[in-house]
Design brief:
Elements: E1 8-13, H1 20-32, E2 37-42, H2 56-67, E3 73-75, H3 78-81, H4 88-96, E4 105-110, H5 111-115, H6 123-129, E5 131-135, E6 157-159, E7 162-166, E8 172-176, H7 185-193, H8 204-213
Parallel strand pairs: 1-2, 1-4, 2-3, 4-5, 5-8
Antiparallel strand pairs: 6-7, 7-8
Bound molecules: adenosine-5'-triphosphate.
Adenosine-5'-triphosphate (ATP) binds near residues 13, 135 and 186.
Amino acid sequence: MSNHKPQIGIFGGTFNPIHFGHLRLAEEVRQRLSLKKILFIPSSIPPLKKEDVAGADDRLQMVKMAIKGNPCFELSEIELRRKGPSYTVYTLREIEETPGLGKGSVFIMGIDSFLELTLWYRPEEVIRLTDIAVVNRPTHDISEIYSSPYIVKGSEKTEKGIKRFELTSGRTLYVLPVMGLNISASEIRNLIKKGGSIKYLLPESVESYIISKGLYRD
Ligand code: ATP
């Protein structure tokens, strides 16, 4: 397991749109792991999601609005600047080479994404480049984590209520139980399509932006 303590949380996602589930989990991970900041990294072309994705600029504006007012939350355009699909491995390589970010990063993901890691581009390199923090989602049982091929069996340790595992790369996996908000971007998009209200699922500024731009309507 890595000995150093991570300083910066890397939170990549489609953010299509960003919602309170994202914001709350980022805040809890920041606090529980005493991170200095969380970098929100909207993906440009999500390799595993193709349908119904709002333009990169709209998703970027929504993230900007949503994190405004939290001095520990920062937006990174690293994936939007890069051409081609937003493979996390390229992002992590770039972050590793950035002075001040480098080695002390922890990549934040929901359990659903972590279980899909085998489908990602170069997953073995991903877990060599960063520690990982996995959070629960109401739709998944956190014990599903044990089925991951990237966990060293029997390496589990609990410290201050946080479970830690060794990844097969030697890096650390933190498993953090967060307040489960049963909100998903796909459900928000469905509600919009059906003409339903999306109030209280995401920040008001983001809701107004979606309405004014007519996003996610058929
Ligand atoms: P969609 O519903 O379109 O699949 P999403 O709500 O899962 O979208 P993403 O942008 O794909 O949003 O998520 C980015 C990351 O945040 C992923 O690792 C995902 O697992 C995690 N995540 C999103 N919403 C939640 C939530 N409510 N609780 C815990 N993790 C979440």
